[in-house]
Specification:
By secondary structure, the chain is an alpha/beta fold. The chain is built from 16 helices and 12 strands.
Length: 401
């Protein structure tokens, strides 16, 4: 029997105000959105989430701690039996804030660390950002808070995976999420920054090897929803426990995942594009939007007939349903055909082929926007005219002080 969809896991963007201006930020954070929810409005949302059965809320930004109601919202979630968590760049995490978070009942905090110091500071566009992130991990741990980390993987930092793990492990993280940078927001403006689909032939086995290593260190490594799928390492990548036989089960947006934007917009996943906004909680209740908005229901009703390209012919189509929706949409302007797939890259490689993404149209300059790409099929050993280390340095610029 299929479980009835409900927003079990909610990612709530409290504000787009941010103390970073990251070169890969999907929401183009930095300045608050127009008409962001007040502290009182935000507190009023908590009861609706509790009624809908929400189990965990991850507070994000921008930087969530820049919202005036931040700590009150954490306490309200805790008091209604919802596990509050935080994802942060860590720049403003003082020891005092860490202690306040512990007192407020935060369950865990994930600090974003996008590579070793040079790559991280360049991606975060700020010298000293890496050191502040590592200091944040140490301060949170000192306050007794369970810590985690996450990385946005791309061509600037892909070689940092293993040495970054060596930096994070002694700092006491309990989990680590590895996802790939999708062409959303500012990352859409920097196509040379992105992995190419054939890069998964190298990246996925390395992530799997790190997961096996992390298990011996009692660290849970999880792949992001846009990293996979169905290669020989799939069970290892998706399973929490070694005895589990888990695998990717399709996009959960609008099924058991929901995103809330800072001005009250509701969508099925926090990274989905504006076209997937189902309504605003200032006009309708969250429950009504969740139950009635077709923009949130697409993953509930999707069938194999909605897939196209390689994904339509894939033997895993009925289970995978085209992988991560926002990633596929950010490439072709619609979901259902996702070239960032390990099985797909391996299948083509056996034929001596690979896929390369070539930019066609540019992004428009709003949060979670995207351009479009042509998917070019070419010989596996072809040179890549869209990429050079020199170009990467140019497009990401020297970080500001």
């Amino acid at each position: 029997m299929t479980a009835q969809p409900f927003p079990a896991y909610v990612v709530w963007e409290l504000t787009l105000a941010c103390d970073h201006a990251c070169t890969h930020c999907g929401s183009r954070a930095g300045v608050a959105r127009d008409g962001e929810l007040s502290a009182d409005e935000a507190l009023g949302i908590v009861g609706q989430l509790a009624t809908l059965g929400t189990r965990e809320v991850v507070l994000i930004g921008g930087e969530a701690y820049l919202h005036t109601g931040f700590l009150a919202i954490v306490r309200a979630l805790r008091d209604r039996g919802i596990a509050p968590a935080l994802t942060t760049g860590g720049r403003g995490v003082t020891l005092e804030l860490a202690r306040e978070l512990a007192d407020a009942g935060i369950v865990y905090v994930s600090v974003s660390v996008d590579g070793l110091e040079a790559a991280h500071d360049r991606m975060r566009n700020l010298r000293g950002s890496w050191r502040s992130a590592m200091t944040a991990l140490e301060r949170l741990r000192a306050a007794g808070i369970t810590t985690s980390s996450n990385i946005n993987l791309n061509r600037l930092n892909q070689l940092d995976l293993e040495p970054l793990y060596d930096e994070l492990r002694p700092r006491g993280i309990g989990s680590w999420q590895v996802q790939i940078t999708a062409p959303l927001g500012r990352a859409a403006d920097r196509p040379d920054l992105l992995l190419q689909p054939y890069d998964l032939l190298d990246v996925v086995p390395r992530v799997a090897a790190l997961k096996a290593r992390a298990r011996t260190d009692h660290i849970v490594l999880t792949p992001g929803n846009n990293l996979g799928y169905f290669g020989p390492e799939e069970t290892l990548l998706r399973s929490i426990n070694p005895r589990d036989g888990d695998h990717w089960r399709g996009c959960q947006a609008g099924r058991f995942v929901m995103g809330i934007e800072a001005h009250g917009a509701i969508k099925g996943c926090p990274s989905l594009q504006p076209a997937y906004v189902g309504g605003n909680l200032r006009a309708r209740s969250i429950g009504e939007i969740w139950r009635e908005a077709p923009e949130l229901a697409f993953a509930r009703t999707r069938t194999v007939d909605d897939l196209w390209g390689f994904c339509r012919t894939c033997p895993f189509a009925a289970t995978c349903m085209g992988g991560c929706s926002f990633t596929a949409h950010s490439i072709s302007g619609r979901p259902g055909n996702n070239p960032f797939c390990h099985y797909r890259a391996r299948t083509l490689a056996k034929q001596g082929l690979r896929e390369r993404l070539v930019p066609v149209t540019a992004a428009t300059g709003v949060p979670f926007d995207h351009g479009t790409f042509e998917i070019v099929v070419e010989p596996l050993g072809a040179s890549d005219p869209t990429y050079s280390p020199e170009r990467l340095v140019q497009i990401t610029r020297a970080p500001r002080s």
